[in-house]
């Protein structure tokens, strides 16, 4: 069985890591890795290969940055050649980024069976490119691996054949659980001069928060207000870094007292900082899930979430881009009233094993 696994961005690498390992353990499976090159900075790509013991890349498309159409089209052209040469039995895509969309389209057009891991998530907000990407990947997939029951329900509501839907749990959580002890032992907070539960961790990179100057200005106000309550650390995503620079708001962010700005961090440092933070303030998708499993309160700076289980069962609160509310929520958390939550069903570290059982052994989960 010849399997092509696709990665393009930071969260893809974190999701594919347990899948690659599970495929590797199966005899009779040749599992290859295709990197589209959507993310190319060492801090967004190379570092995860070393830390997460990912297999080396078999094909690199070097697509780089561009508009949605440029990135999608370039990836399709490169990936189609690989599919032609490899004649794979299966293409595996994860998540909802442009690389996911592009490779799903190629698999669909060439008639190669497609597995979509993290199927069925919906924000019901088509202004987010990720929502379009997820919907298309799900429409084309033969195997839809859902992380939660709400994701299965979304797919059924859309008329997807129930025989193709598999509720397997969450591969991102497989990675958290595999590396949690190593991350805890690092005590990365100490390198930044923090003590346990005495700092906030920020990540913000969504176009809706950083691409327009007035919104980015509000992001800075949010960070200022929260920093007045408690110190923080903000590893800055390259999209945000670029927008800060072009809008000349970078100086304003640097002036925020008690705030450390860093480059994006490696997985183990980031996980370590997450587990020891009093709370995480983010617009990331995956971090909403990771904080739920770690039991750390998460404030999501978005209008909605495609991961509602992190709100109904986990530690997540969706607060929008609302600086006074963020400060108020942080005060509550610091005074011991943060959400505790519980761990969602099947977020147990074995999702990738279940996916591979279905794909290789044809088992029902
Ligand atoms: C992409 C995904 C988003 C995901 C995020 C994870 C899409 C539509 N978006 O957003 O869903 O949450 O990755 O981090 O697929 N850049 C660099 N170096 C890099 C990569 C990007 O400097 O290695 C800069 C470039 O200026 C680029 C910008 O960041 O134009 C945005 O990169 P892009 O991959 O288009 O989108 P992300 O915002 O990273
Ligand atoms: N992450 C990391 N270093 C950082 C910020 C995030 O390793 O500086 C990890 C984080 O733990 C999670 C993933 O990157 O596993 C989330 O990626 P991102 O927020 O870029 O994408 P999204 O989940 O929003 O698609």
From TrEMBL:
Pfam families, from UniProt? Epimerase_2 (PF02350)
Please indicate which superkingdom the organism of origin belongs to: Bacteria
Q: What keywords were assigned to this record?
A: Isomerase
GO MF, one term, reads: isomerase activity
For whether the record's keyword set contains S-adenosyl-L-methionine, the answer is no
**What SUPFAM superfamilies would the database entry show?**
UDP-Glycosyltransferase/glycogen phosphorylase
Q: Which residues form the UDP-N-acetylglucosamine 2-epimerase domain?
A: 22-359
Q: Which NCBIfam families match?
A: wecB (TIGR00236)
Q: Which family does it belong to?
A: Belongs to the UDP-N-acetylglucosamine 2-epimerase family.
Q: Which PANTHER family match?
A: UDP-N-ACETYLGLUCOSAMINE 2-EPIMERASE
Q: What is this protein called?
A: UDP-N-acetylglucosamine 2-epimerase
Species whose genome carries this gene: candidate division TA06 bacterium SM23_40
């Amino acid at each position: 069985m010849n399997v092509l696994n696709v990665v393009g961005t930071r969260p893809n690498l974190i999701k594919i890591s347990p899948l690659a390992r599970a495929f590797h353990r199966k005899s009779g499976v040749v599992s290859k890795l295709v990197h589209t090159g959507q993310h190319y900075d060492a801090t967004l790509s190379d570092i995860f290969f070393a830390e997460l013991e990912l297999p080396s890349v078999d094909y690199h498309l070097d697509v780089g940055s561009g508009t949605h159409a440029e990135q999608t089209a370039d990836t399709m052209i490169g990936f189609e050649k690989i599919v032609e040469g490899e004649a794979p039995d299966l293409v595996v895509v994860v998540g909802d980024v442009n690389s996911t969309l592009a490779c799903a389209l190629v698999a669909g057009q060439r008639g190669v069976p497609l597995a979509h891991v993290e199927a069925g998530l919906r924000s019901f907000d088509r202004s987010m490119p990720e929502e379009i990407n997820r919907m298309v990947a799900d429409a084309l997939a033969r195997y839809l691996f859902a992380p939660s029951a709400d994701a299965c329900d979304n797919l059924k509501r859309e008329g997807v054949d129930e025989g193709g839907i598999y509720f397997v749990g969450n591969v991102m959580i497989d990675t958290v659980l595999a590396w949690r002890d190593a991350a805890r032992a690092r005590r990365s907070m100490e390198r930044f001069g923090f003590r346990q539960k005495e700092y906030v961790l920020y990540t913000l990179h969504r176009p809706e928060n950083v691409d327009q100057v007035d919104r980015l200005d509000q992001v800075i106000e949010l960070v200022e207000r929260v920093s007045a309550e408690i110190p923080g650390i903000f590893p800055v995503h390259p999209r945000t870094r670029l927008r800060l620079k072009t809008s000349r708001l970078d100086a304003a962010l640097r002036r925020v007292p008690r705030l450390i700005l860093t480059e994006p961090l490696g997985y183990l440092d980031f996980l370590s900082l997450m587990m020891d933070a009093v709370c995480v303030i983010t617009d990331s998708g995956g971090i909403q899930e990771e904080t739920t499993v770690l039991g750390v309160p998460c404030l999501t700076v978005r209008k909605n979430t495609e991961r509602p289980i992190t709100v109904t069962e986990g530690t997540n609160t969706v607060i929008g881009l609302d600086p006074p509310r963020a400060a108020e929520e942080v005060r509550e958390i610091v005074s011991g009233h943060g959400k505790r939550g519980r761990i969602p069903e099947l977020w147990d570290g074995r999702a990738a094993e279940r996916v591979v059982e279905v794909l290789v052994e044809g088992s029902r989960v």
